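== Sequence and structure of one protein ==
=== Format: two labelled lines per protein ===
==== Data for this protein ====
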Amino acid sequence: MVFSVILVFVFGAALFASRLGDPSGWLSGGGGTGSLVYPAGVNPEEIGPRLDEYMRNQVSSSPLVGKGLIFAQAGKQWNINPALMIAIAQQESQLGTAGGGPPKKNPFGWGCPPCISFSSWDEAISQVTENMRKNYLNEGKITIEQIGNKWAPVGASNDPNNLNSSWITRVTQFFNAIISYCPQLAPAPISGGNIISIAQGEIGICETGNNCGPVVKYGGTCGDAWCAYFVSWVYTKAGYLINIGGAENMKQFFTNNHRFIPKGTAPTPGNVIFINLDTDSGADHVGIVEEVVNDRVNYIAGNNLQGCVGRSSKTLNDSQIMGYGRW
């Protein structure tokens, strides 16, 4: 059991992606847990009692029993899977029965030692879930492994007994156990077809003036280039939360998560295509692969010809293609 974290208040850039449901577990870190965001369509009033049952079965004396609805409501508000927060509470304090739990109403080991105090369990659940969104997922820490490396880093000065070394493994185990008990919280697998159909429905929408008009719904502000915002918007509409502006920023996201596929590997529908339009080394344009026919890749992109959402096509060996992002 771990009672130590390093508390860091850093508000990072809004580069994040989750609910990607990759069966290989690349977004889960340590065991294929899948998405860490709140599943679409799940009613907190429905899932709250199931979460209470899980906690009661694990630690019958837990003061968090009866707080399942609070976990679910906070999760929905901040788009965090409540299974993650309960798994952390189980690892850090045996669901509020040890560590900073009883005296300080801090079941998450937040700021321990000496542990931050809260006025109520409800306040702790709400504030720490908010912190998870703002200082972890919004910073691009979208897997349990990535979260653990910041929340409970191995070798931390406040962890002399090296308890943090098991944090990622155990939180993953608890998360999976909660998902098994509450299958409503399980992430949905990604659907390339759904992504494509949403993108197809936007074809013909055009900017007005200086990148203004209806395209601002995709993200950014009037005047911004919006091809990456369009891709983010399509994925978000499909239920897979992304908020990345800038083609090169999006390429770096895939690269950092080992999901960038260099040119030479055939893309599949729903992949993201990255294009370099000039002589520098960065991506200048981005779109969504619609289909591959013979030696050509057809894709849908925002801020395309005439500043509209439209179709384009290139040969697979076109020198402007840099590669693909594969979810």
